[in-house]
């Protein structure tokens, strides 16, 4: 006998009868492992876990309050979390020593204190690859919306600003013949570059820890960060956020960019010093910025960035396709279930 619980606020629904206990769970003395799920998620992952685990879920479109997370994680064997949940020593202590693994439904894991996890020998699964195409597609869309001023142009039609066809109105910057600089040519950076190549990009530059073999496919040149900034017409933030690159795009970085540069960030808001970005945009030090990620998220509606026509801001929707989010949920479920069964996680953070 086991339970499937959905908790929303004070409401608790308990249902279910399932006696399926695999031999591989024998290390848990024949009881179904308990998994805490921190949000309403696409069902794919829950369907993988439900036949084998006792699930407790914060069934809401809003993040679980921290106090509730700390209360609910106590005694659980696994945690299914999102990038909006800060998983640190306090949460891991609250969980207790039986916590065996964590699966985050994201490719980024800057919200998880990996040192604390390693110290406790808790493996963390994540969801690379399955969101690469969706995120790359959105990055291209955001780049074009920003460089060709799509939001501003559409808004001006609504506001009666479309006088007549004007040879000097709403001019933007095209990709044809341009130099694109990708900061972090990983899975997503590479997928973005592949999609941009057919637009007639003349040169691809990239920076990061080391040269990559895949770069040859698009003839991308490995350069240092400063060279990338000063030579690129488009600068794309595609690297994972770490302690070292927090605020990487700051006053100094913007001052090195070309005045026609379009800056696009679909990675993490923490890469950018937003005060410095605002100044660079107001002073036309760079032409425009497209952001799918900000710090904090959501971006407060009184953020000065929202007053700028040359700044396009989206609400972190890079991976927001039905297919990608379903696959992210499923992979998180598989990561957790595999580990609980004593198998390798399909995608474990090294
Ligand atoms: C991730 O998975 O880290 C992405 O930011 C979600 O879109």
TrEMBL record:
Superkingdom in the source lineage: Eukaryota
GO CC annotations, alphabetized: cytosol
Domain D-isomer specific 2-hydroxyacid dehydrogenase catalytic: 35-347
CDD domains: GDH
Keywords annotated in UniProt: Oxidoreductase
Molecular function as annotated in GO: glyoxylate reductase (NADPH) activity; hydroxypyruvate reductase (NADH) activity; NAD binding
All copies of domain D-isomer specific 2-hydroxyacid dehydrogenase NAD-binding, residue ranges: 140-318
Record has Oxidoreductase as a keyword: yes
Protein family per UniProt: Belongs to the D-isomer specific 2-hydroxyacid dehydrogenase family.
Record protein name field: Glyoxylate reductase/hydroxypyruvate reductase
């Amino acid at each position: 006998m086991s339970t499937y619980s959905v908790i929303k606020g004070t409401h608790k629904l308990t249902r279910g009868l399932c006696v399926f206990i695999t031999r591989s769970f024998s290390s848990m003395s024949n009881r179904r492992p308990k998994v805490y799920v921190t949000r309403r998620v696409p069902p794919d992952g829950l369907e993988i876990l439900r036949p084998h685990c006792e699930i407790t879920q914060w069934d809401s479109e809003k993040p679980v309050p921290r106090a509730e997370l700390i209360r609910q994680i106590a005694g659980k064997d696994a945690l299914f979390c999102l990038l909006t949940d800060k998983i640190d020593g306090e949460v891991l202590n609250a969980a207790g020593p039986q916590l065996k693994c964590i699966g985050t439904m994201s490719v980024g894991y800057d919200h998880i204190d990996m040192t604390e996890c390693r110290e406790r020998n808790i493996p963390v699964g994540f969801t690379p690859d399955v969101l690469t195409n969706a995120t790359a597609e959105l990055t291209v869309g955001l780049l074009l919306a920003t460089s060709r001023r799509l939001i501003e142009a559409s808004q001006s039609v609504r506001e009666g600003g479309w006088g007549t066809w004007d040879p000097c109105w709403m001019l933007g910057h095209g990709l044809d013949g341009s130099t694109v600089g990708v900061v972090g040519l990983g899975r997503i950076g590479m997928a973005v570059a592949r999609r941009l190549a057919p637009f007639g990009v003349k040169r691809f530059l990239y920076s990061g820890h080391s040269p990559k073999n895949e770069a040859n496919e698009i003839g991308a040149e490995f350069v240092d960060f400063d060279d990338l900034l000063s030579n690129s017409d488009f600068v794309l933030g595609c690297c994972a956020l770490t302690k070292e690159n927090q605020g990487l795009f700051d006053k100094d970085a913007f001052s090195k960019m070309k005045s026609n540069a379009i800056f696009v960030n679909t990675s993490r808001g923490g890469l950018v010093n937003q005060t410095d970005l605002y100044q660079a945009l107001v002073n036309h030090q760079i032409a425009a910025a497209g952001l799918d990620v900000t710090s904090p998220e959501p971006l407060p509606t009184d953020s000065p960035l929202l007053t700028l026509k040359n700044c396009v801001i989206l609400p972190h929707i890079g991976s927001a396709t039905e297919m990608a989010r379903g696959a992210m949920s499923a992979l998180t479920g598989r990561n957790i279930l595999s580990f609980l069964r004593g198998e390798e996680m399909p995608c474990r953070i090294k």
